[in-house]
């Protein structure tokens, strides 16, 4: 009887094999995709493309990077491929988009406490579908989940040469690449390596208006430290060979983010700490938080509205705004948040501004800097 059971099973298998083959051939294949969680880590920055309107990239502190597809109206994850020994690559400390090609992007990736602090520059020429990995751990390390991770951008592409990139590091100064990020060398002309808060150089802004048949001649650099410790805003007029401090920057605040508005103005946000503002603002009754700076780059007068949030996360419009009018290239506009007293507002020339005070102000450390040529 026992011998008949295997024989019967074999006969049934042979008889049903054509049916299973036909079913398999006609079955609909599975389609795999990422699940939209709807929450998670901290989205530290959104970087729009200048070359392709509507396309934008987002970076997070522990969740990788994403691309917004305006046609499909959804975000696509770019780093789902990382392996176990690359989990630190999910901490994106900065993201750079080629101003002339929306598909050409670079990521500064690494988390101090994962994979031995391994740090890499991830480069994609196909909008994040594939990446090349350049390990830079031996030269500098980053920390995508560290203090000041919302600052930036510290990794940028030169507007006049897509193979020229700058990266401000946390402990090792300013670096430059002339081969699209494959190799890096320290820029000795900037006399800054690290800062007391371990955030280092958090802003690099090359000015497109200074491009003359080559890379940008004018480059701004922000340093995450109080002006009382040392200069926290620098400017180069020779393509990054040498740098000089920008006079008139706030001495009791440190720069967070910066952007050029397209009308000759450099807009910088300042705060009284490196951020994120968990410890700095915890004692505030209103728990103020500064939104990223935004400008409308067109030649007409541009309005910047400062928004703030209360301790429950609800958006509230600030009672302070700034109207920027076209001016000379050297004009700098500073917008900031002094977390212990409220909002501050100051304007001045990027060269030679003397800080002033508004005796009638009721907003604490406020006022407009007097301008000198």
Note the beta-strand portion.
25-35%
CATH structural architecture of the largest domain: 7 Propeller
Order of helices and strands: HEEEEEEEEEEEEEEEEEEHEEEE
Quickly count the helices: 2
Mean pLDDT: 76
Tell me the CATH superfamily of the largest domain: YVTN repeat-like/Quinoprotein amine dehydrogenase
What CATH calls the topology of the largest domain is: Methylamine Dehydrogenase, Chain H
How many separate domains? 2
- Which regions have little confidence, pLDDT < 50, spanning 5+ residues? 278-291, 294-373
The N- to C-terminal Cα distance equals 106 Å
Structural account:
The chain is mainly β. The protein has 2 domains: 38-245, 7 Propeller (Methylamine Dehydrogenase, Chain H); 251-373, no CATH class. It has 2 helices and 22 strands. It has helices at residues 4-26, 278-281; strands at residues 43-48, 56-60, 65-69, 74-77, 92-97, 105-109, 120-124, 132-135, 155-158, 161-168, 174-177, 185-186, 201-206, 219-223, 233-236, 244-245, 254-260, 266-271, 302-309, 315-324, 331-338, 342-349. The strands form 6 sheets. A 4-stranded antiparallel β-sheet has the order 1-2-3-4, with no helix packed on it. Strands 5-6-7-8 form a 4-stranded antiparallel β-sheet, with no helix packed on it. The chain has a 4-stranded antiparallel β-sheet with strand order 9-10-11-12, with no helix packed on it. Strand 2 (56-60) and strand 3 form a beta hairpin. The protein is globular and about 80 Å long. The termini are far apart. The relative contact order is 0.08. Mean pLDDT is 76; it is low at 278-291 and 294-373.
């Amino acid at each position: 009887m026992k011998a008949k059971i295997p024989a019967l099973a074999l006969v049934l298998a042979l008889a049903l094999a054509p049916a299973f083959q036909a079913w398999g051939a006609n079955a609909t294949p599975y389609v795999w995709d990422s699940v939209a969680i709807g929450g998670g880590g901290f989205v530290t920055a959104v970087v729009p493309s200048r070359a392709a309107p509507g396309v934008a990239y987002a970076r997070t502190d522990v969740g990788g990077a994403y691309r917004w597809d305006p046609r499909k109206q959804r975000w696509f994850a770019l780093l789902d491929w990382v392996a176990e020994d690359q989990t630190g690559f999910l901490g994106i400390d900065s993201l750079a988009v080629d101003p002339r090609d929306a598909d050409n992007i670079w990521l500064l990736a690494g988390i101090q406490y994962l994979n031995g602090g391994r740090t890499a520059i991830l480069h994609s020429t196909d909008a994040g579908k594939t990446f090349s990995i350049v390990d830079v751990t031996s030269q500098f390390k980053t920390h995508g989940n560290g203090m000041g991770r919302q600052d930036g951008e510290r990794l940028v592409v030169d507007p006049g040469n897509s193979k020229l990139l700058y990266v401000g590091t946390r402990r090792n100064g300013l670096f430059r690449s002339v081969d699209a990020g494959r190799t890096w060398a320290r820029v000795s002309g900037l006399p800054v390596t690290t800062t007391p808060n371990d955030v280092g150089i958090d802003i690099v802004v090359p000015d497109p208006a200074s491009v003359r048949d080559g890379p940008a001649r004018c480059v701004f650099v922000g340093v995450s430290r109080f002006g009382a410790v040392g200069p926290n805003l620098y400017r180069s007029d020779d393509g990054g060979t040498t740098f000089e401090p920008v006079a008139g920057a706030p001495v009791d605040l440190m720069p967070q983010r910066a952007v050029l508005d397209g009308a000759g103005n450099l807009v910088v946000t300042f705060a009284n700490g490196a951020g994120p503002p968990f410890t700095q603002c915890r004692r505030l009754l209103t728990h103020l938080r500064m939104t990223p700076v935004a400008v409308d780059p067109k030649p007409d007068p541009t309005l910047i509205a400062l928004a703030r949030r209360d301790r429950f996360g609800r958006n509230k419009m600030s009672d302070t705004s700034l109207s920027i009018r076209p001016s000379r290239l050297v004009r700098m506009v500073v917008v900031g948040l002094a977390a212990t007293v409220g909002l501050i507002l100051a304007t001045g020339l990027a060269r030679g501004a003397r800080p002033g005070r508004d005796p009638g102000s009721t907003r604490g450390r406020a006022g407009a800097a007097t301008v000198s040529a």
